[in-house]
Amino acid sequence: MRVFVTGGTGLIGSAVVAELLGNGHTVLALARSDASARAAEAAGAEPLRGGLADLDVLRTGAARADGVIHLAFSNDFSSAEAVAAAVAEESAALATLGEALVGTDRPFVTCSGTPYAPGRASTEADPLPTDGPVGGRSLAVMGVLGLASRGVRSAAVRLPRTVHNEGNGGFAGLLTGIARQTGVSGYPGDGAQRWPAVHALDAATLFRLALELAPAGTSWHAVADEGDAVRDIAEVIGRRLGLPVEAVPAQTYGPLGPIFATDQPSSSAHTRTALGWEPKHPSLLEDLENIQP
Question: Cross-referenced SUPFAM superfamilies, in alphabetical order (predicted)?
């Protein structure tokens, strides 16, 4: 398959591009800068210059491909306004890509986060939350899945709170960055809340499987670690950086504070059984040992 990939040079996207190329597919990668274009070419993909806001470019990419994988999203979580702008940009991009694929029966794989299920690990059958700072992303993903009735083999890979590689990425990566800035490896609340996690290379395998095999309108969980206690994550970060480990106010994390403070384990039992996905790479706590002081 020739696959159009957005976000193909990020931590997750670069792993997805390598996974696709290593399994006989070719890749057309959206590249919003010269540096991204060079990185895409170096990885073996063909770059297509443009960003998520360039809707005509997205239409072109979808038209030139046998399938689409969407991964791009702004990493600016500095304010509620920045998050809202990122959600709006992505929502328009997903709607544009979806319309370009209507009636083609081509695969369209997008991403979201794993949902929150009070008192238990969430499953693939649980609905995505439509409230909170990133609730708009859920509405956009639901719109993509709804394209199943319009001749699109749409699917969603739900990513856990931390997608990691070499100690970097996800919520754990944000904790590491804040620890470096503040001199404290902090965690909100009592730190007993759990975050699910997956290695980027394992997530990449699931994106490929969803592209190749997922029935239309289905959701899948890229979860390797069902839930690591945030205090345990902070303790590894603190030890690696030589910093004290302490509870800090949820407000420390800005608009993500309420999410950081929530217990949100997640299961991937159905995904593993139905698609034959089996994570093989290091767990989050193991991978955090790669953090450099």
Answer: NAD(P)-binding Rossmann-fold domains
